Amino acid sequence: MSESAVATEFPILPTDRLLMRAVSMDDVSSIRALLGITEVTRYSNIPDSPTEEQAIELVRNMSELYQSGNGCAWIIEDRLSHAFVGVFRFNWFHKPWKCGGIGYELHPSVWGRGVMTEALRAAIRCGHDTFGLNRIEAWTLPGNGASDRVLEKGGFRYEGTLRQKAWFKGAFHDFRVFGRVTDDALCE
């Protein structure tokens, strides 16, 4: 990430159908409702049905990522109605290596419509062009084929499985690791 990236205004990302804007504390109820949907958190290390306190802490952490220089989080809205449809994050930056890791959640009412692919492509451009990242990483859990396909449409390549990488929700989980670098093309 370039040093100037944090000093500039928050990168609002408009797309054909979406507006990706900064997360604020006003988004707690929307994010909590989204994370209360079992299908949304099934393949995630985010708590199922977070408490109000957990939701406030999650939103606080997301809203502070950009100013701290450690990442960036966006609310995904429908560009016309401004309806909340999801969240997209660079959860971390490793500045010396010009690398960052992403995560996202999308409301099931817009699944299968290319919404997350559109958001991912906007975030990829921002990651490479604005934040100066060479490499962007993501992980999915086995069985989450929809997320695998979204990443592949964003030019990510499956790089392997890290067996029993993490413990959450009462079990060890394998991580399917995906990565892309600046020179990788976006898939259509």
Description:
32% of the residues are buried. The protein is of the alpha+beta class and 188 residues long. The protein has an 8-stranded mixed β-sheet with strand order 1-2-3-4-5-6-8-7, sandwiched between helices. Strand 3 (72-78) and strand 4 (84-94) form a beta hairpin. The protein is built from 6 helices and 8 strands; from the N terminus they run αββαααβββαβαββ. The protein has helices spanning 3-7, 28-35, 38-41, 52-68, 115-130, 145-153, and strands spanning 13-14, 18-22, 72-78, 84-94, 99-106, 135-140, 157-168, 171-181. The chain has a single domain, classed as 3-Layer(aba) Sandwich (Aminopeptidase). Helix 2 (28-35) packs across helix 4 (52-68). The radius of gyration is 16 Å and the shape is globular.
Name a few traits of the molecule.
8 strands, Aminopeptidase, 31% helix, alpha+beta, single chain, disordered N terminus, eight-stranded mixed β-sheet, 188 residues
